[in-house]
Amino acid sequence: MRRLFLTITALLLTAGCSIAGNDDADGKTTVTFRLWDEQVATAYEQSFAAFEKTHPEITVDVQVVPWADYWTKLPADVAAGTAADIFWTNTSNFGLYADNGHLLPVDVSGDWTKSVVDLYTRGGKLWGVPQLWDSIALYYNKDLVTKAGVDPAALTWDPSRPDDPFRAALRRLTADGAGRHPGEAGFDPKDITTYGFNAALDQQAIMWDFVGSNGGTWQTGDAFTFADQPKTAQAVQYVVDLINKEHVAPSAADTNTNSDKALQLFTQGRIALFQSGPYHLKAVHDGAGFPWGIAPLLDGPAGRVGVVHGVAAVASARTAHKEATTEVLKWIGSADGQRPIAAGGYAFPGVTSVQPAFVDHWRQRGVDLQPFLDSAGGTTFPAPVGPRVGSGGTAYAPVLQQVFLGQLGVVDGLRKAQNAGNEAMKG
Fold first, then answer.
1. What is the structure's pLDDT at 222?
2. What total of structural domains would you count in the chain?
3. Model pLDDT for residues 153-199, shown as the tens digit of each residue
4. Claim to verify: residue 241 and residue 128 sit in the same structural domain
5. What is the pLDDT of residues 76-109, one digit of tens each?
6. Exposed end of the chain (fewer CB within 10 Å): N or C?
C-alpha cells in the first residue's frame, strides 16, 4: 500500500457556533468526541490521557453512541447545531454533511493510508482524518478444510464454468446430518450441519467483492448503475445460487436480518470458510474452539478484488472551540495518537507507520494478517460514496433481501433496487 508522508498543516475553518464543547470553570476547554464502537473507545481514552498530559488546557470527552442509534441521532444533532466537536463517520454518510457546509475541510494530513484519504476526499478537499480501515480476506476452519482436501489459499471461482472450482470445493465442505454432501443422493438441505461458505447479503464482505472479482461495478458518479452491468448481475446471481440452489451457505432467512449469524456459525464450527474483515478478529479469536487461519480472497475472472473501507474523524463546522478541536484532530491523526488503537489489536490504524503494532498484536496470538494487507494493497472495489448514498442503500436493501430469499429474480430485482436507490438519493 502506498503511503502519504505529510504532516497536518492547517484546517480551513469556517465561522459558526455550537454548544457541543464547553469551557470549564478551571479554564480548560472540553472538546467532545463521538464514535459508535465501545471497544475502540477504550483505546481513545488511553490516547487522550496521553494527549491531555501535553495539552493540560484541553479535556477530551469521549461519547459512545451505539451503531443502532448513531445515524438517527447524528442528523438531528447536526441540524440542531449540537453535534460533537469531532465525530466518526463512514463513506455512506459524510458526503451530505460536507456538501452542506457542516464539516471543516482538512488541509491535509499525515502518514495516512491513501485509500482512506481518497474515500474522504470530495470536491478536491479532504473532509476527515483517517482513523482505521479494514479489508476483506477468508477465515477458515483448519479441521474442516483439511478433512475435505481443500486448500483455502488456492481457491478460484468462475460463474461461467460448469465445473467451477469454488462450487465444487463448497460441496465437499457442506454436509447434512447424515454426512451427505450437496449433489449426493439423499442429501437433505433442511438438515445441514456444516456449511461451506457464508454467502449472504453482506455488501462489504461478500457481494461487492464478488462483483469486483467478476469485473462488475456498482456506482457511476453519485448514481447506482449496478442493474446496467451484466457482470454485476452475474456475480450476484452466483452468490444467490450458493444459498438457494447449491445449498452450501445458510438461508437468507437467517442472515438477511441478523448480520452476526454467519459469524456465530463459524465460531461454532458450522461454517468452513468465512469471508469477512479484521473487525471480526477478536470475536473469532475468543469464540472459535478449533484451529483457524486467514487466507487470501478468492481469485475470480478479474482477479482477487476486495473492498477497502475506512472510518474518519470529522470536525463540526459549528464547533465553538476551533483551536482546541484542531489540536485534537492533529493528535488523532498522529502515530502517538493512534498507537493505542493498533497496539490494542482493535483495528488497522489510519496512520501507516503504526500498522505494524496491530500486525504484531495478532502475530503474538498466532494470527497472520498478511492476507488483509495483501487485499488492501491489491486491486480494490470502491464502497459507494455520495451525499445521499446512505439513503439510497437503505431504500434498495429490502429489494435485495427479496432477491437473496429467492422471492425476486436477480435481473428484475437489481433493476427495482437501483430505481429505488437512485430515487431516494434525489432527496
1. 86
2. 2
3. 999 999 999 999 999 999 999 999 999 999 999 999 999 999 999 99
4. no
5. 999 999 999 999 999 888 888 998 999 999 965 6
6. C
Determine the Cα angle at 147 with ends 141 and 148, to 5°: 90
* Domain that residue 93 falls in: 3-134+309-379
Q: What digits encode the pLDDT tens for the residues 301-323?
A: 999 999 999 999 999 999 999 99
Question: What residues contact residue 4 under an 8 Å CB cut-off, 6+ apart?
Answer: 109, 110, 111, 112, 114, 117
pLDDT at residue 108 in the model: 54
208-230 in b/e form (b: 16+ CB < 10 A) is bbbbbbbbbbbbeeeebebbebe
Same-domain pairing of 321 and 295:
no
Q: What is the overall mean pLDDT for the chain?
A: 92
Contacts of 62 (CB under 8 A, 6+ apart): 33, 35, 41, 44, 45, 48
Question: Contact, 86 vs 35, CB < 8 A?
Answer: no
The x, y and z cell numbers of residue 85, run together, are 466537536
Distance CA 197, CA 182 (A): 13
- Are 348 and 370 in the same domain? yes
**CATH code of residue 266:** 3.40.190.10
CB 172 within 8 A of CB 161: no
Is 302 exposed, middle or buried, given 0-12, 13-18 or 19+ CB atoms closer than 10 A?
middle
The three-class DSSP label of residue 302 is coil
3-class SS string, 220-261: ECCEECHHHCHHHHHHHHHHHHHHHCCCCCCCHHHHCCCCCH
Reported confidence tier of residue 22, pLDDT bands at 50, 70, 90: low
At 16 the pLDDT is: 35
Confidence of residue 4 (pLDDT cuts 50, 70, 90): very low
3-state class of 106 per DSSP? Answer: strand
- Taking CA atoms, 148 is separated from 137, 177, 271, 291, in Å, by 20, 16, 13, 15
d(CA 342, CA 333): 13
Could you tell me if 326 and 401 lie in one domain? no
What's 206's DSSP letter? I
Sheet holding 121-122, edge to edge: 10-11, 106-107, 125-126, 121-122
Better-predicted residue by pLDDT, 88 or 27 = 88
> All 3 cell numbers of residue 66?
451505539
Tell me which residue of 135, 169, 167 sits closest to 152, measured CA to CA: 169
